[in-house]
Amino acid sequence: MPQLNPSPWFFIMITSWLALTLIIQPKLLSFLSTNPLPNKTPKPTNTTPWTWPWT
Prior knowledge:
By secondary structure, the protein is mainly α. The chain has one helix at 10-29. It has 1 helix and no strands.
């Protein structure tokens, strides 16, 4: 069964994961967000209970 032989695809999978984690991911994480979140505290919303007509 050729699908059980890991030699053709295992090296490609390992090198692609290493390239992703060691090269591409740090470059992507180094970018700063262009729209930073404000440091405002959220205001609590005033909710009123629903009055059901049949109760």
